[in-house]
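hey so i finally got around to running the thing on that chain from the lab meeting. sorry it took forever, my laptop kept dying and i had to restart like 3 times. anyway pasting the input first so we r on the same page abt which one it is
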Amino acid sequence: MRKASVIRKTKETSIELKLNLEGTGSYKVDTGIPFLDHMLELFAKHGFFDLELKALGDLDIDCHHTMEDIGLVLGQAISEALGDKSGIKRYGFFILPMDETCITATLDLSGRPFLVYEIKPPNQFINNIDVRLFNEFFQALSVKAGMNLHLLQQSGGETHHVIEASFKAFAKALDIAVSYDERLNGEVLSTKGVLT
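ok and heres what got predicted. didnt touch it at all, straight out
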């Protein structure tokens, strides 16, 4: 079973996360930010990942530290759960429609982090969350996961739909990338022989 447990404690946040890449989509999430809880629950459900997450952060200041640090911890958990990445498809791609919104997620578990984030919600805030912080979340995640991630918005007129479709598309693309290809016979999909 490809699992990871990560704990991160700083003066700004305290985060405990457990991830199982070969799960059923079960989740127990408490970040102190209800909308982020919802997005991470969608990530688990649609990617068939089991996710347990408890986060305490300095939300009296704002959501930035908590959202960025959760991205760091989730990215680290993905990397640790994958190990040497032998046998996995490595690449994932998904186009996700949600009413008026359409988002494409493309990723490569190459070990070389890079984020292209072309998500442009029509409004800057959902409740008290500046939605630009989701860029920070995915940036942190891609760095710690060693993931090349492109999130592209083709259409979208409702902010909730744009962010939700981004998380769902990411989950589906990641599910594809971490799945096994029997033709690899347990080898790494790289002429270098390693993915780092």
